[in-house]
Amino acid sequence: MDGFVRIMFPIVAITLILSVYGVASTTRNYEFNIQLQNVTRLCHTKSMVTVNGKFPGPRIVAREGDRLLIKVTNHVSNNITIHWHGIRQIRSGWADGPAYITQCPIQTGQSYVYNYTVVGQRGTLFWHAHISWLRASVYGPLIILPKLHVPYPFTKPYKEVPIIFGEWFNTDPEAIIAQATQTGGGPNVSDAYTFNGLPGPLYNCSAKDTFKLKVKPGKTYLLRLINAALNDELFFSIANHTLKVVEADAIYVKPFDTETLILAPGQTTNVLLKTKSKFPGANFLMLARPYVTGQGTFDNSTVAGILEYESSVHMKNLPLFKPTLPSLNDTSFVTKFSNRLRSLASAQFPANVPQKIDRHLFFTVGLGTSPCEKNQTCQGPNGTRFAASINNVSFVQPSVALLQSHYFDQSKGVYSPYFPINPLHWFNYTGTPPNNTFVSNDTKLMVLPFNTSVELVMQDTSILGVESHPLHLHGFNFFVVGQGFGNYDPNKDPKNFNLIDPVERNTIGVPSGGWVAIRFLADNPGVWFMHCHLEVHTSWGLKMAWLVLDGKNPNQKLLPPPADLPKC
């Protein structure tokens, strides 16, 4: 029997390798069991929601063109959904995952198969829970390799390593947001940041939980960086090493060298790390710490991992070099970095920027307040509750899924199709804020006919202070054609738009005290969520949804819902 197992194991391993590196396009099956697992970090043990008992969760690997069938079975008391962040979900919106937008959540004891095909995409993405704050522990890499025999448009790496940034809370994040919702105040912050679930040696009781990247001299490594943190944009750097940026949000970019990167939650970046030609006789810290623009409290700590060179001689007490990161509020660095990101815009990887625009839209994004209920004390500004909005509409989550309501023509009483195309009240968005900071509350959708070309300007506001907001659009990539500080000027600013090689992505930071302009083609029928990827702002209502109608042809229509779609 033992011999049989020994023979079988290599066969199984070879079969798995062949399945990823094998035939042209294939169907890949994964099983996700949502289960509680005891995990210890910083000397705190807690039971937390995980996929298959792993933190972070398992890696999904596929090729461009592959079909994925991922069966998610819920063994915990929380409702759950999974979002495949950055996957276009062409006509397969039922598999997108945001709770009450494209599906009712998977309830305890139930399961649902996420069924979708990866069309025209390759690169680093990730998956995460998309209900309440469960993505704090329910997340993992989603890696899409190019089609077979299609090379990367850069040096073939010796090895590929995913590094997923996260946040660790000593207490239960669900209790944190529940308490904040009850009091109307700001939620407690995390206790650590992590690389692949490990906080590293700069925290108390954490030295043993350190991510180590072991490398050989004279090799090129592809680091797949993913920011899965809940509420923080993060700077990242490796001491004494230059990184070559080659991809952002699973879209190839014109390569450029940098010592430091910035990643907002929801963003991914691939970098090439060329190791030193011979053993350097030292170890090198890799660090990440937050970029902070808002007024609220934040987790002001630093996650550290160690870059170690392999050596034939075991050497102790090697010097440890430490990188210098930008200051916490270095908006100038962030602006310069984001301006360096450009699409390849080559014959093989064109930048199909919409040139003729059907709909010009202007959205303000920012914080606000809601009045405190009678006979209650609230801990928001001046005794109010914290809120957040787009065009002063703070999104009210429905109790049934929007996509089903639309598909079965049962939208009455669920949502309004009249999301405002611009703010109802003009004010000096980045100047002195108005006296009235109350938001309106509603479930409104922006309706777009199939194949509408959209230009959307998103403007930060100074209500409760200017702040950078990483906005994520489901179902589409978009081109970032312009950005600036102060109030957007519709007469002057479009003259400077880049319509040749703008970066294409799925998540973009609206600059602190500024604006960003994006363009996309609404060629994907369904209901598509757009929200701030700082989870606290999403909880406060900084979210909305687009309803893209079916086109005329059969291949332009949303597919019917799967039989196992969860019920509310």
From TrEMBL:
Enumerate the cofactors the protein uses: Cu cation
Domain Plastocyanin-like positions: 34-147, 160-311, 427-550
Which cellular components does GO assign to this protein?
apoplast
Q: Which residues cross the membrane?
A: 7-24
Gene Ontology molecular function, alphabetical: copper ion binding; hydroquinone:oxygen oxidoreductase activity
Record carries keyword Secreted:
yes
Q: Which reaction does it catalyse?
A: 4 hydroquinone + O2 = 4 benzosemiquinone + 2 H2O
Q: What is the role of the protein in this entry?
A: Lignin degradation and detoxification of lignin-derived products.
The similarity comment for this entry is: Belongs to the multicopper oxidase family.
- What protein am I looking at? Laccase
